[in-house]
Amino acid sequence: MQRALYTLLLRASLPFALGRLWWRGRAEPLYWWRRGERFGYYPDAPEKPVIWLHAVSVGEARASAPLVRALMQELEGCEILVTCTTAAGRETLMALHGESVHIAWLPWDLPGAVRRFLEHWRPRLGVLVETEVWPNLVVACREFGVPLVLANARMSDKSARGYARWDGLSRPAFAALDAVCAQSEGDAGRLRDLGAREVEVTGNLKFDATPDVERRAAGEALRSALGRRTLLLASTREGEEAMLFDALGAIPADIQLLVVPRHPKRFEEVAQLLSARGLVVARRSSGASRETGVLLGDTLGDMDVYYAAADVAVIGGSFAPLGGQNLIEACAAGTPAVLGPHMFNFLEATRLALDAGAALQVADAAGAIHEAMALLQDPARRGAMGEAGRRLCEAHCGATARQLAACLRLLK
């Protein structure tokens, strides 16, 4: 009954969804590209068997990259399809994988659209990354005999309470998953409480997403071009830049500020915010040099480069109640991380980083800037925190192999 009501509400909201797609496409034209895919209409399907993975946006695309590569290597006779929902996610997938995989929009969760999607691609296996459990999609996969894995699964207390309010809708969907690879014991417990059955703790794929030699070299080249100790404001969200700039005040001449907003549509907004404060702004897409005032990171898929270029990183999404952003990339690059109070989407990774001494957590933006500036003046402490981050990632790697094994068991 709840699924029927859910589907009815989706159908009723379709004009608003199309309007929102048009509105977002004004700033990010990729949203207008291949709009038919949102309804389950696609170009020609590959002749080889298809393995399908869904990574909704940028974070999931980057986190799932090691698993995508492992599937490509292990299943050479198959084609890999990776779906997403956001324009930034699609651009990130194209930057990460190029033409080595098929990239498409996941259709909206309407019964007809998801059936057309499955009839077209005929995947042998579906892999949903982190929290992407859509009721009609899961039911259709069961009807088509497509086994489903929820990979790198996480479930915060807040999200669990939200799902529990719609128990008649969410419980059958979680129960229909054939395997769940949880990031932590806490995530596993909450997923079991919501109805998931085959749950195992496999760790976090993000610990395996370490930068390769070329990406690290690109970061070091950027650091050299800037020629100063660099403070990175990483993956900042709306309203956070102003808080952090207010706390920072005048930027010391021997410190380089590097700002990377979380969403590409905000690049211009943040550039104007910086200019309004009398700061000289240079864009990474236009190059950087020792004369750069504030550098705006406006290139997609380069967070690993920015972390490798930075001496200290302040992690965005954590100064407003938004749940934080991925701090593991900073740890992997050996960059000390300063976190705000709101990291509830990354509880386990935050706990591990704090316990290891790879990160600091503060109460507000002023505290973050205070700690970051102190670290910039203390190379020995920075070095110790950076080494702690690298050791942390080395100690917790291996999630890719464990989650690949779960996928292969279902294929057999």
Outline:
This protein has 412 residues and is an alpha/beta fold. It folds into 2 domains: 2-208 and 398-411, 3-Deoxy-D-manno-octulosonic-acid transferase, N-terminal domain (Rossmann fold, 3-Layer(aba) Sandwich), CATH 3.40.50; 213-395, Rossmann fold (3-Layer(aba) Sandwich), CATH 3.40.50.2000. The protein has 18 helices and 14 strands.
Describe the structure.
The protein is α/β, with parallel strands linked by helices and 412 residues long. The protein has two domains: 2-208 and 398-411, 3-Deoxy-D-manno-octulosonic-acid transferase, N-terminal domain (Rossmann fold, 3-Layer(aba) Sandwich), CATH 3.40.50.11720; 213-395, Glycogen Phosphorylase B (Rossmann fold), CATH 3.40.50. It has helices at 2-12, 14-27, 58-74, 87-97, 111-121, 135-144, 157-165, 167-175, 185-193, 213-226, 240-248, 267-276, 303-309, 328-333, 347-356, 365-376, 379-395, 399-411; strands spanning 50-54, 79-84, 102-105, 123-129, 148-153, 179-182, 199-201, 229-236, 255-261, 281-283, 294-296, 312-315, 337-339, 359-361. It has a seven-stranded parallel sheet, sandwiched between helices. The protein has a seven-stranded parallel sheet with strand order 10-11-9-8-12-13-14, sandwiched between helices.
